[in-house]
Amino acid sequence: MQKKPMQEMFWESGDFRLGFLPFGGAVTRLEWRRPDGAGYAHLLRPSDQSALDSGNPSYLGCFPMVPFANRLAFSQFEFDNRIIGVPANRPPGPHAIHGFSSREEWVVGKSDEATLRLETRHADTHNNGFDYAAWQEFRVRDGFLEWELGVQHLGQGAMPYGIGLHPWFYATEDVEIEFIAEGCFNTDDDMLPVAATVVDLSRDFSTPRAARRHRGLDCHYSGWDGAARIFWPENGVVLSLGASSTLRNLQLYLPRDGGAVCLEPVSHVPNVHNRVDFKEFGDVLVLAKGQNLIGTMTLAPELLADITVSDPV
Q1: Mean pLDDT value of segment 121-132
Q2: 96: closest CA among 77, 124, 122, 120?
Q3: Beta strands in 142-281 (DSSP E)
Q4: CB-based burial of residue 201 (10 Å sphere; 0-12 exposed, 13-18 middle, 19+ buried)?
Q5: Best CA proximity match to 179, nearest among 143, 137, 223
Q6: Residue 131 CA to its chain's centroid (Å)
Q7: pTM score > 0.90 for this model?
Q8: E-assigned strands of 95-170?
Q9: What are phi and psi of 27, to 5 degrees?
Q10: How far apart are CA 65 and CA 253, in angstroms?
Q11: How many CA atoms, within 13 angstroms, populate the side-chain half-sphere of residue 107?
């Protein structure tokens, strides 16, 4: 794990102020200038110096997931008649999680008032066929932030890719969540999906629900319509989240300590590499050399104003 001190960098455009680290391509904070003159509102959980120095992407504001998202059972899968192994990166557990790129170096490819672009190059260091370039590009348009994550396969043989973003949204005691999905998954003790199922009342956020009443929930949703909202009634702010058609699976994680809200737009079901029966709910994409997989998340904050928020449960 990275231990050298981390120097936070900043980018500002329009009403948004973003902090980031070259290590891991991590975003350390995202702030929005309120139109009522009351200063900036946190959208992501801001990172203090101990979080910056930790080298742990889970302590920061957001990190990219490439070339797969969430968990991969026993750090391997079969593809093209061979076993592909990847590093087990959460010891002492045997599984891999969140891909490679959140623990690698990124560089600033472009930074001006209109665009911030971060880039990384992953050579086939694990000798498993994953050889790619990845990027994140941030653009502010008409009051919202457009956040693109992309990967281009550079290896000779085709490989299966998945991507996702893992934002740790700012949490208050009264923060509420709203989104609609067709289904979700039951999991085993290692949080690996074992069965596709319906969205029952305890996992239904089709109307705004207080996150504090669901702390500890870690659930994967399929058939997501690509829209979600986070409400901060105490702060008078609502954030509308949108996702492109390539990021229509959603992982919801609500830490037990209430310190964040994780709504993660991803391209596939966790461990779908090893579960043919889950492919219909969100599969990885096989890329030949030179082909891309690109996903976009949009973040549009506004003041709550006359929006009515109700929590029926």
Answers
A1: 95
A2: 77
A3: 144-153, 159-161, 164-167, 176-179, 183-187, 193-197, 209-210, 218-222, 227-232, 237-243, 249-253, 262-266
A4: exposed
A5: 223
A6: 21
A7: yes
A8: 96-97, 107-111, 115-122, 132-141, 144-153, 159-161, 164-167
A9: -95, 130
A10: 15
A11: 5
Which of helix, strand or coil describes residue 278?
helix
153 neighbors 291 (Cβ within 8 angstroms): yes
Report strand pairing: 62-65 vs 71-72: unpaired
Token representation of residue 240: 């509308």
Give the pLDDT of residue 198.
97
- Give whole-number Cα distances, 98 to 12, 63, 233, 263, 309, in Å: 28, 9, 32, 14, 33
Task: Classify residue 214 as exposed, middle or buried by CB count within 10 Å of its CB (0-12, 13-18, 19+).
Answer: middle
- Whether 181 has a pLDDT exceeding 70, the answer reads yes
Q: Where residue 308 falls among pLDDT bands split at 50, 70, 90? A: low
What's the chain's average pLDDT?
A: 95
The position carrying tokens 């702390």 is: 215
Of the pLDDT bands very low, low, confident and very high (cuts 50, 70, 90), residue 2 is very low
